[in-house]
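Before relying on records like the one below, remember that each one covers exactly one chain. Contacts with other chains, cofactors or solvent are not represented anywhere in the record.
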Amino acid sequence: MQGRFKKGQSGNPSGKRKPKNSSNRKPMKSIADALHEELQQEITVTEQGKKYKITKLEAVIKNVVTKAVKGELRGLKILQGLEPLVDGSLQATQARHRELSEARERVTEKLNRLSQRLLGRKLND
């Protein structure tokens, strides 16, 4: 029985070819990454006659808080759902501030010791 291809030849040699730089294609973003990127984009908002730019995330938060303040049940429910996220975010922010403060103190102490050492050498020269 004879086939269409010679021995050792397979597939469609004149068919669709692979792209030359297939490794240069951008990897697909996760939904979380795409959402984060979208929420970080800035939009122009007008409040009390003044225009300014805020991120889409800030706009969503303003909208939900405004609805909750007006007593709309949906806004209140959304805020309740966000509470654990906000608490976690605040705790993480506070921890980062503590770490930065401690790091600043360590650097300041080291710089003070170094300057005292250098001043001591100059006085002895």
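Residues 94 and 106 are 18 Å apart (CA to CA).
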